Amino acid sequence: MPKPLKLGAQAVAVAGLAGLFALLIWKITHRPRPVKVGAAAPAFDLQRLDGNGRLALASWNGHVRVVNFWATWCGPCKSESPALQRLWEQYRTRGVVFIGVDSTDVASDARRFVRKHGLTYPMVRDRDGSVGNLYDLTGVPETFVVDRHGRLVEHFAGPIDLRDNDRAFKRAVDRALQS
Amino acid sequence: MAACAAALLVLPLAGTAVASEAHPTLAELEGEVMCPICHTTLDQSNSAAAARIEAFIVRRIRAGDTKSEIKRELVDQFGPAILAEPPKHGFDLLAWLLPIVGILVGGVVLALAAWRWSRRREPELVLAAGGVALPRPLDPELERRLDEELRLFDE
Q1: A57 lies in the same domain as A11
Q2: Model confidence at B134: pLDDT above 80
């Protein structure tokens, strides 16, 4: 092989390796950090489930927000829905906003679920689960309490239950209201 | 003649593809659609999320949708990552082109290496008087050193 051609091939190989290495570094440094209590809640701006525009977490800045991730194919999401609806009715008068995030679901199934369970708080669609990834979900349902300043106050993995973690949930919301 | 034979071979395949597009089955779509929770194709997943997507596909098949329409609806519901195959446009086109480019470049490199290797292995011959091919004579310095080594070896 002529020397210039050989040098060119070597340069291409080295450039390729450097490119792959840069991609690896970029992937490592841009990996989403796991959300922590006390840190800022990851922002989102999602399509409303009823199709009437979009809803951003930041649009309720100044309010305490309860963000609940759920899906129609999740059994515990069905069992927690009466508790969430009751808590929403209880806290909405105190300026707390509940936001349901329907994750990786068929929209018509999700709308039917909302009607069937009589859920009246705002619902959005995380169609590909990307917002769930920002919140480092391990499954559904998971619920996050966000204070007036956008900081995460508490995280509940698993269903909110009026018997098991009702007190812990109320303590977290009260803490957020005092912030 | 050859063209006719090729057409006879290709026609049944084209017919199958057209039938599959117009009347898709759940079984074939299960291998082409991902479960967004388990990150495997639907046929590899037993999750409730996969079952929900399968039920959606069955509803669309019963409604008479074509395969392309069902895939479009799935992308609309779940985003492009729901399809096992990357789209053939934009940045995702690279996923289709890079393997082909890699195979072509690898083939060229292998061909060059084989050509070079075969040239090295050919004995270098020179034509002697009378047209007889003889091995190329050694460099005088190399011949002197070789004779010396052989002499030392004999001693």
Answers
A1: no
A2: no
A39 lies in a domain?
no
Q: Most B CBs within 10 Å: which of A102, A128, A131, A140, as the mutation test of the B interface?
A: A128
Residue from B66, B4, B2, B64 nearest B29 by CA: B66
**Above 70 in pLDDT, residue B33?**
yes
pTM for the whole thing?
0.73
> Is residue A133 in a domain?
yes
Which residues, in sequence order, are bridge partners of residue A123?
A100
Yes or no, beta carbons of A128 and B36 under 8 Å apart: yes
**Mean of all residue pLDDT scores within chain A:** 93
Residue A147, domain CATH: 3.40.30.10
A14 and A70 inside one domain: no
Give me the residues paired with residue A68 across strands. A100, A143
Complex ipTM over 0.85: no
Å between A2 CA and nearest CA of chain B: 11
Q: Poorest-confidence range of A64-68, A132-136, B15-19, B79-83?
A: B15-19
Full DSSP string of A2-57: -HHHHHHHHHHHHHHHHHHHHHHHHHHHTSPPPP-TTSBPPP-EEEBTTSS-EEEG
At residue A7 the predicted structure's pLDDT band, cuts being 50, 70 and 90, is confident
C-alpha to C-alpha distance for B70 and B148, rounded to whole angstroms: 83
- What gap in Å lies between CA A49 and CA A101, rounded to an integer? 9
The residue segments making up the domain with residue A20 are 1-30
Residue A156, SS3 per DSSP: strand
Q: What is the number of domains present in chain A?
A: 2
User: Domain check: are A57 and A18 in the same one?
Assistant: no
Q: Are residues A77 and A16 located together in one domain of the fold?
A: no
Put simply, the answer to whether B52 touches A72 (Cβ < 8 Å) is yes
Token pair, residue B65, equals: 């949708």
Contact A106 B56 (CB under 8 A): yes
